[in-house]
């Protein structure tokens, strides 16, 4: 199977599912978090597939790896924000299982891709 672009990448597809899950999860956050944690989590999640897509279409291994590293960094941001939400009284009782699982899968896949794109010596 030939890759036609970023939409064929399993990591991009899973990252898109993660965005959807983060949106569903944050719908249950208190309204006072709309411009705080809700906004931050949504932006971090959106950044993951966006960086994967941009890097994939840049054309060089170096650029692709750079954007995958950006996506990985956004994943770490999201992971931190989810951990914060789990500690707050108004959001700690929500079910984070699906978001946690998807994020873990995406991070493992990104890590593997980044490792495979290390500069050749």
Automatic annotation (TrEMBL):
<dbReference type="Pfam" id="PF05635">
    <property type="entry name" value="23S_rRNA_IVP"/>
</dbReference>
<dbReference type="InterPro" id="IPR036583">
    <property type="entry name" value="23S_rRNA_IVS_sf"/>
</dbReference>
<dbReference type="InterPro" id="IPR012657">
    <property type="entry name" value="23S_rRNA-intervening_sequence"/>
</dbReference>
<protein>
    <recommendedName>
        <fullName>Four helix bundle protein</fullName>
    </recommendedName>
</protein>
């Amino acid at each position: 199977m030939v890759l036609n672009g970023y939409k064929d990448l399993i990591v991009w597809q899973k990252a898109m599912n993660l965005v959807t899950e983060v949106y569903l999860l944050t719908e249950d956050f208190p309204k006072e978090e709309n411009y705080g944690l809700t906004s931050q989590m949504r932006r971090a999640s959106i950044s993951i597939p966006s960086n994967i897509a941009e890097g994939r279409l840049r054309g060089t291994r170096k650029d692709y790896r750079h954007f995958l590293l950006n996506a990985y960094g956004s994943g770490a941001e999201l992971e931190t924000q989810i951990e914060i939400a789990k500690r707050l009284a108004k959001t700690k009782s929500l079910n984070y299982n699906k978001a946690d699982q998807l994020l873990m899968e995406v991070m493992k896949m990104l890590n593997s891709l980044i490792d495979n794109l290390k500069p050749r010596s």
